[in-house]
Amino acid sequence: MNRKLAAVAAIATVLVASACSSSGSSGDAKQATLSKDGKGKKITVWLMDDAQKGWPSVVEAAKKQFKEETGADVDIQWQTWTNYTTKLDTALLSGNAPEVVELGNTQTAKYIEAGSFVDLTGVKAQFENSDKYLDSLAASGQTPDGSKTYAVPYYAGARVLIYRKDLFAAAGVTNPPTTLAELKDALTKVKAANASVPNFSALYLPGQNWYTAASFGAGTFGVKNIVAKSDGDKWTGTLTDPKFIEGVKVWNDLQKQFSVGGATTDEATQDALMAKGNIAAIVGNGWELGSVADPKVGDPTLKDKLASIALPGNAAGQPTPAFLGGSDLAVPAKSANPGLGATFLQIFTNTKQQTELAKFAIPNAKNLVAAYKAAAPANKATGDAAEGQTWFIPNSPMWSGADETALKNAFGAIAAGGDPAAELKKVEETVLKDLNG
């Protein structure tokens, strides 16, 4: 059995539960409708408890509007990420699926391939701001070629440059860098000013943090088709594109000059390490700024000494593309009331609700990010990153943790002195074997 057949077998329960024809592929999925015939009915919505803790008012407002427009009630069932896909698979197998489910954007592809969700393509234009969705988040809910939509963006997170204002200022850097050239100049000054500090990193870039390394490649190469691109039923590699390699060499130069992160570590502990005082900057998720100064796991004395900006790119106003994580929302094909589920999605992601959500997280559309940035000064960096060019992993059910491990090891090998072109060629071959079966 080849890998593709093995993968299909592994998600067979999902295929059984949610396929709408004998083939069970996404091309056979049920076409969505928008229904307001909800009198006397109740729909079930699975949302992660992030919303319960962060923006319950948005959920309540959507429930109220939905009730007013359809007559139906909404049962919100709060979920946690732990073992979530196992629970969802079970619900799909039972034929008793919720009308709406939330998924991490890296989880969505396998369910699309399995035909688990209704096809929203025909009604997408009736979703407010659907033509302005954040690029990478929108891509995660589509088929690889982008022609069909099965899940819609909910909210996002982005990586940014988090740095010590005090250390930069002490080195004579009083204005945030706006380009990679300015960043390199600033780091050179910070490194020189702290030459006597043991194990000092002006910019901590651990070798196995492949998301950051790939962002530098994307900055030169472009933001579409990072790692691999879909060509019909076949995937071809892009890691060996000369422009991608050129960007990776920029990352490699920065990590060799300014980081003591090493070739065998990743970003998992970088916020805790930064709190120890010998790191001037990291590339991390926006929430890591709070972790560095957290009283329990960090150093609260650093709170007023930290700042963040979108990771500068080759030109001012054009950040290095960020990997965009986040959540999608979808309607299971085997739910009892998929038309009402699609209508709830339409209401829950409309301009009104997303503008309110923007007080707490990056909303799903570029035209609404301004509201997020206006909500708090700390939001500007992640907002700028989300508004800029972003990228996403190959949107395939064949993508797995093994592929990420292979990429981590490849970039670690480059950080250890390996030739970028040679290492990227090797890992490209590995990833393509997985994607193509």
Automatic annotation (TrEMBL):
SUPFAM superfamilies to which the protein is assigned, alphabetical: Periplasmic binding protein-like II
Keyword Signal recorded: yes
Name of the protein this chain belongs to: Sugar ABC transporter substrate-binding protein
The family this protein is said to belong to: Belongs to the bacterial solute-binding protein 1 family.
Record keywords: Signal, Transport
Superkingdom of the source species: Bacteria
InterPro entries: SBP
Signal peptide (from-to): 1-19
Entries under Pfam families matching the protein: SBP_bac_1 (PF01547)
